[in-house]
Amino acid sequence: MTTPLDMLHQPYWMTMGPMIVVAATGFVVMILEFIFRKGDRRWLTVLSMLGVVAALVVAIIHFNAKPTFALNTIGVDPFASVFSVLILISALLVLLFTLDFSAKSDVPAEHTYLILFAVVGALTMASSIDLVTLYVGLELLSVASYVLVAVRTHSIRSVEGGIKYMLMGALGSAVLLYGMSFIYGISGTTNLMNLSGAGLQMFSTYPAITVIGFLMMLIGMGFKLSLVPFHMWTPDAYAGAPTPITSFLATLSKAASFGMLLRMLVFIFNAPGAHLFYWAGIIAAITMIVGNFIALPQRNMKRLLAFSSVAQAGYILVPFAMFGIAQSADWAGLFDSISFYLFAYTFMTVGAFAIVYLLERDKGSLDSDALIGLYQRSPWLAVALTIFVLSLAGMPLTAGFLGKFYIFVDTMHFSTIWLGVILFATSVVSFYYYIGWLRKVYQKEPVAEVTALSASPIMHTLVAVCVIGTLALGIVPALLLHPLAGLPWIYG
Amino acid sequence: MFHYWNPYFLIVLYVVLGIFLPVASIWVIGPILRPNKPSEAKGSTYESGLEPVGDAHVRYNARYYLFALMFVVFDVETLFLYPWAVAFKKLGMFALTEMLIFIVLLVIGLAYAWRKKVLEWT
């Protein structure tokens, strides 16, 4: 029996290092922001990026360390490390993206440290082993995101998106908490370590309540992950938010939510609830089909990317359906394909949003006609967009193709081929709207004189980093798969 | 068997009484007993003895919410300080540092609100 005093001496730095660094940076930036109120304040964003880099260094140092737990709530195992690194990399990309947008005066500087606080929440979601702490992390991420969506207080669309996101997010949180309360009610503990042992007994004694708990937790996270039919807020929030924030919602927030969902479901419902994971497969199928088909008639570029991100969430949910079928020895492969897809998805999505942002600023409209003549205007950006879009669609030699390929192989391996077929078929549908973009990109501009699309060096760097990420993971997947291979993902 | 249904019986009794009493007093016994002399003053909205002015459906100033938010933050802080004070002897230096960090974070929040002119009404 450990007393509270013993627990206090557990190694905090090992488990919470990245969180402490990011939170401290957030507070420092917040204080500096309200002390220095004049002039160009982009150095605040640079400072935040330095903090995130420091946290990334800490996370990588602890990468292969022995799993450690502090206060029985925060733990660091390979699963937490991989997701922390993913979250911090996407935070770095998003902050680089906001660096360009901070130059505009109509956006308050609050977004810089709101992103940092959201990252702290995301890191908590990746590394917590207690339902209550996981929920606190989720709320920290969500509340910061609601404000971030509505950060342009003068734009009615931004505020509308923020309010919608907040209402749907609150509903999702309520459903999630209700599901957690069922699990707590029948097991008497919120600690995932204890729950993973109690799962079998819980399931044999109260099967109905366990099923309700599982479904409610899946649905609650479904609101955050914009799974169909809980995706209604997505296009409005994505289109209303400033574009860097949209890329934040699409990558960082989604990666952290997938991490949390994976950890909760796999810890609690591993062995006994095998057939429960089938529900995740059904939701994944609906999400892939609906997301891709609604995206077909979209003309607004950000709304199209929003529906595309709904569909991508469906692809990533596919391996969840296999956790019930696979033996725990085979789980490593599933973890590999989920995290590979999330890494690939981060690079290609941030890149696509970066170019949409440049076009939006140039033309003042989000209609996909803004793409016309992009190749004539800026060949390099047009080729970059081509790479991102083909990767989102799943063309070979890009990261997106390999991500889908690994998931498809999983479905064949664990004989849920119907999910693989839906994944393949809906990807073909997605080619239609992505190729529609490319047709416009390579179309000739009707006007005689062409002006190059203006982009700051920051945006060129961001696009270049995303292109390198997308191509590198697509051509040499071992870059990522090698460190992931043989990781003892979860200690349960 | 008796001690199982006994508490439920009490609940049923409460439910029956809870429905019977208001229904009886408002719709059945009340109308029989009370005299019926309506006047304009009796029909008006009760506002602590003042003459009611305007409509109840008015827009509140958003600043009320900001003040309420600030109040809740420091209310919760006080709530945390009570168990902390009780357990302080046992936890010692560690608890002091923890609480200092907590209060410093709240003070940063207050300073932020101050700088952003949340505390000014105009």
UniProtKB/TrEMBL annotation, chain B:
<dbReference type="GO" id="GO:0008137">
    <property type="term" value="F:NADH dehydrogenase (ubiquinone) activity"/>
</dbReference>
<keyword id="KW-0830">Ubiquinone</keyword>
<keyword id="KW-1278">Translocase</keyword>
<dbReference type="InterPro" id="IPR000440">
    <property type="entry name" value="NADH_UbQ/plastoQ_OxRdtase_su3"/>
</dbReference>
<comment type="similarity">
    <text>Belongs to the complex I subunit 3 family.</text>
</comment>
<dbReference type="GO" id="GO:0005886">
    <property type="term" value="C:plasma membrane"/>
</dbReference>
<keyword id="KW-0874">Quinone</keyword>
<comment type="subunit">
    <text>NDH-1 is composed of 14 different subunits. Subunits NuoA, H, J, K, L, M, N constitute the membrane sector of the complex.</text>
</comment>
<dbReference type="GO" id="GO:0050136">
    <property type="term" value="F:NADH dehydrogenase (quinone) (non-electrogenic) activity"/>
</dbReference>
<keyword id="KW-0560">Oxidoreductase</keyword>
<keyword id="KW-0812">Transmembrane</keyword>
<keyword id="KW-0520">NAD</keyword>
<protein>
    <recommendedName>
        <fullName>NADH-quinone oxidoreductase subunit A</fullName>
        <ecNumber>7.1.1.-</ecNumber>
    </recommendedName>
</protein>
<keyword id="KW-0472">Membrane</keyword>
<keyword id="KW-1003">Cell membrane</keyword>
<feature type="transmembrane region" description="Helical">
    <location>
        <begin position="6"/>
        <end position="29"/>
    </location>
</feature>
<comment type="function">
    <text>NDH-1 shuttles electrons from NADH, via FMN and iron-sulfur (Fe-S) centers, to quinones in the respiratory chain. The immediate electron acceptor for the enzyme in this species is believed to be a menaquinone. Couples the redox reaction to proton translocation (for every two electrons transferred, four hydrogen ions are translocated across the cytoplasmic membrane), and thus conserves the redox energy in a proton gradient.</text>
</comment>
<keyword id="KW-1133">Transmembrane helix</keyword>
<dbReference type="InterPro" id="IPR038430">
    <property type="entry name" value="NDAH_ubi_oxred_su3_sf"/>
</dbReference>
<feature type="transmembrane region" description="Helical">
    <location>
        <begin position="64"/>
        <end position="85"/>
    </location>
</feature>
<dbReference type="InterPro" id="IPR023043">
    <property type="entry name" value="NAD(P)H_OxRDtase_bac/plastid"/>
</dbReference>
<keyword id="KW-0813">Transport</keyword>
<dbReference type="Pfam" id="PF00507">
    <property type="entry name" value="Oxidored_q4"/>
</dbReference>
<feature type="transmembrane region" description="Helical">
    <location>
        <begin position="91"/>
        <end position="114"/>
    </location>
</feature>
<dbReference type="GO" id="GO:0048038">
    <property type="term" value="F:quinone binding"/>
</dbReference>
<dbReference type="GO" id="GO:0030964">
    <property type="term" value="C:NADH dehydrogenase complex"/>
</dbReference>
